[in-house]
Design brief:
Blueprint lengths: L1 H19 L3 H15 L2 E6 L5 H9 L8 E7 L11 E7 L5 E6 L7 H13 L4 E6 L3 E6 L5 H15 L2
Antiparallel strand pairs: 1-2, 2-6, 3-4, 3-5, 5-6
Amino acid sequence: MVYLIIILAMAMVIGPVLWVRPSPKERRIAQFRSLAMEAGVKVEPISLVSNEYYQRVSERNLHVADYQWVRYRRISKEGESGSAIRGQWTQRKDRQGQLLWEPDPVTLKEPESITAYIDQWRENQDVRFMALEFGPRTVSVVWTEEGSVEDVQKLISMLQALGQL
């Protein structure tokens, strides 16, 4: 009986300590975000409820609500010229379940440098990526943070390359 009480007391002490430790997924995401921030990429979670544009996207594409989305945004530094492109490309599913990338505004032409990345995502039918955004001094990608460290490094180099356009 004494041993049972000792075991229960130990479990009550050790249990909360183990509960507070980060899971492997949390460690992986922390590593991704650390790599991004070291490269000067800002990491922002996206709320499908409060962001009007992505709320409309999630209403048209039900699979979008199944994921947690994060924006990796590269902002041009002082003295650097930003991207000459303004607009964004958003992924959606068609009636056959194929993932398509459509520009916003619709009249936006797809430069070759962007086509290379989007075509790769089109071919792979990669649901991890939802949007590629261009602003006056920013270039961003909205994705699920699923993948490997190599994927994050490719993503960071892509943002740096597209930021120079």
